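Thread: Newbie trying to understand structure tokens

Hi all, I'm a second-year student working on a class project, and my supervisor (Dr. K.) asked me to get a predicted structure for one chain before our next meeting. I've only ever worked with sequences, so writing a 3D structure as a token string is new to me. If someone could post the tokens and maybe explain what I'm looking at, I'd be very grateful. Here's the chain:
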Amino acid sequence: MNERTGLAKFRRFVIPTLIVLAVLGGAYYFWFRSTDTTSSASTIKTTTVKRGDLVSSVTGSGQVYAESSVDLKSVVAGDAIDVVSVSVKNDQEVKKGDLIATLDMEDAQKSVRDAELSLRSAEIKMAQTEKLYKHETEDDRRTRQLQEVVVRDAENRLSDAKEDLQKYLIRAPFDGVVTGLSVSAGDSVSRDDILATIISKKLYAKVLLNEVDAASVSVGQQTKISFSAVEASDVPGVVSKIDTIGTVSSGVVSYNAEIGFDDVPENLKPGMSADVEIILSEAKNVLYIPTSALRSDGNAKYVLALDASKNKGNSSLTEDMFRKVTVTLGNSDDVSTEVRSGLSEGDVIMTTKSSSSASNSTTSSSSRRTGGGMFPF
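---
Reply by user tm_fold:
Sure, no problem. This is what the structure looks like when written as tokens:
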């Protein structure tokens, strides 16, 4: 009797309760799904066709070098020789042939004097020979010829002695500037010592390019150079040379390009850094658009241009307001492309259409209920 009563109570109270909970749970599930919605919206981005200058270029960094640089050394034989005088100072401009320093030439001057005496003696003897052996006999001719050889030999010895004497006079080999002057009168120098260095006033910049940029660079292209050390920028230059064979470092191939320039900024010196922009192509006062706005249809390029007749002042744009316009293109840089036909300045074109989604999931503490501590909703 008790068992039947308990079973009846279970059927009467528990089973209906479970059914109600199941219904409520299903209702909550569908209600939660309905509130957890994702809304998507497409945003059309546009820009206008602009007019201006379009420049395609590559850049590189490097250093300034002197076009010519020569270390001046003593070429006189011997372990050491004294410096008699120094005729210049550091940073002094000199012309080709200007005297830089004079070395002790006492021995060389004596050699010149001895050679002059030998030549004078040979010439006197030649005059005597011509007087004594003036006949046209074979013996007379040979005697005169032998003495002529003696005279020629004496002349050569004097010429060599005078040439050696010039080695004691250190002169500038070309127009330039004195730098690195390291001697003064009374110093002793050897053949390996550098007395001074002459650098030409003509300078150039050498920049390092990667293999992709180097493939686009050629001799004769115009450049703009900036020298941060002397606060000079946009100094005009030209590519005068580019390596045919690159150098490999850590698996990366690089090429040196030499940039010549005539407008040398004040106080610019060899060794200073240079930033170079090499102009690959330049178009002035042209129409251009963002490259990202271009689309392809086979080999043809086109853009989507806003049809003013379909817009009619609507604040929001839709795709059906744009029409396909085939364009003819010109120069391009990394960002923009020249348009030679198909568009006009001020035309509105589509650049991108981006989709944005937002998840609107409604979760309220009041919508959560707990029954018996077992079934959270």
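A couple of things are worth pointing out once you decode it. Residues 332 and 338 are 6 Å apart (CA to CA). DSSP finds five helices and 23 strands in the chain. Feel free to ask follow-ups in this thread.
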